[in-house]
Amino acid sequence: MGKKVLVFADRRDGVVRQVTYESIAAARLIVGDGKVIVAVLGTDGKKEVESLAHYGADHILLLEDGQLDTYITDAYFLAWQYVIDQVKPDVILTGHTTIGKDVAPRIAAHFDFGLISDCTSINMVGEEITYTRPIYAGKAFVKKTFVSGTQFSTIRPNNIPTLDLDTSRSATTEEISVEIKKDRLRTIVTQVVKKATSGIDLSEARIVVSGGRGVKSTEGFQPLQELADVLGAAVGASRGACDAGYCDYALQIGQTGKVVTPDLYIACGISGAIQHVAGMSSSKVIVAINKDPDAPIFQIADYGIVGDLFEVVPLLTKELKKVIQNG
């Protein structure tokens, strides 16, 4: 028997994020002969329909409301609540992002759903859905199942492969509206001021170049940025670098920062404290650059370079430029 799986699309600046397509791929694993329904919140959602269909969506709900263009907890809670009441899904999936981490627990508590957060894989074992998530700061993984009721989980970005693009697929669409009264909103966002970034979403980046206290200053991040530009990577940082004022906390990776799972993680001047490792230990390939041969980061690194990052990183950048230019 097929299941009805509801995926809440995660959008940034009006564009559906990669983790949404990963959530759809997970939905297709468990849906059987049922239906994958994707809810898109905010204006101009119609432009996303074709792409969502090509990657596995069967039916798309469009909530074209300008109040949902900017994330406000209460507005999103009301919208999600309304969609769930209308769809009555068997399974709900969304990204383990800032929005997902904020709204999912509220929705689960409201409906009395079980919630398994930060899943790195979802599999069918017979008729049972098994969810895998990390515990103990990523040192171990646990497999969980639901005993009964609607199943709700959030997906960690960069862990579940998306489906192959299928341009022959199409999806039905439905425009729905939810009444979001001003008196239900305890917070009103009047202005959003964005800080300059590389333009690459750190949590979804395939390559991350990260710096720690070893960069010594704000200027010390410049060689890392140059390497990142060559690789098309995002720049991250340890909490130590952020606390020292070398960079903004938006770049922080670790237990109290962002969790990343890139294909390649280059740690520059990072000692490897457990709090930082918790945010990047699931990276597919880890390269550590540190002048201390006994730095803990080398214990988890696939490749280690003992040396001064201010000598090693520019050399890496120079050689990689040659490789890329030569094809």
From TrEMBL:
Family annotation (PROSITE patterns): ETF_ALPHA (PS00696)
GO molecular function, one term: flavin adenine dinucleotide binding
InterPro entries, sorted: DHS-like_NAD/FAD-binding_dom (IPR029035), ETF_a/b_N (IPR014730), ETF_a/FixB (IPR001308), ETF_alpha_N (IPR033947), ETF_asu_C (IPR014731), ETF_asu_C_CS (IPR018206), Rossmann-like_a/b/a_fold (IPR014729)
Domain annotation Electron transfer flavoprotein alpha/beta-subunit N-terminal: ranges: 5-189
One of the GO BP terms on file: fatty acid beta-oxidation using acyl-CoA dehydrogenase
Binding site for FAD: 213, 238-239, 252-256, 269-276, 290
Database matches in CDD domains: ETF_alpha
Pfam families, per the entry: ETF, ETF_alpha
ATP-binding found in the keyword field: no
Cofactor(s), names only, from the UniProt record: FAD
Superkingdom, taxonomy of origin: Bacteria
Cofactor note: Binds 1 FAD per dimer.
Keywords associated with the record: Electron transport, FAD, Flavoprotein, Transport
Keyword Signal recorded: no
Similarity remark: Belongs to the ETF alpha-subunit/FixB family.
UniProt protein name: Electron transfer flavoprotein subunit alpha/FixB family protein
Organism listed in the record: Shimazuella alba
